[in-house]
Input
Amino acid sequence: MTQNPYAAPTQSSRPAAGVAPACLISSRATFFYKRVFIALWFGFLFVCAAVVLSTTVAAGASYAEIAVAVGIPVAVMVLGYTVFRITIMDVVDEVYDAGDALLVCNSGYEERIPLADVRHVKATLFVNPERIVLELAHDTRFGSRIAFLPSIRWIRLVRNPLAAQLAERAEAARSMIC
Output
């Protein structure tokens, strides 16, 4: 019987006492970006749409003016949702560096992904929030691509050093297997 290398870690697969625990490499602000910021964004736009609707109706505007006044915030909501869907909503909650593997946590589920299974590491440049995307050799419960937000850097003129380090370590892990 073969074991699934992506199965959730058991208590015995986590670092033992006296061994350095896995290090968090994803941003602590992920929850804010995924949940709080998006709720504030849509809440603000909803309030704006409600204020515009009430003022245009109270002013006795025509239906065309009301449609335009409400249509603009709704269009911004649709655009915002599309942008958030691409940039923020697909990131996992936490990623830990466990030495020869990454421990990925999202929505209460965990998966241990060996670095040898990371085929490509991509990092965004000049995008806020910064993202790192791992392309995997095999599907996991989170898919074959795992995106996460690395720790916040203030100056982002070069590729994220964490992405470069993960790419080098994944290459080294793959070469050890061959």
Summary: The CA atoms of residues 143 and 153 lie 27 Å apart. Confidence is low (pLDDT under 50) at residues 1-19. Helices lie at 30-58, 63-87, 161-177. The beta strands are 23-24, 94-97, 101-106, 109-114, 118-123, 132-140, 143-148.
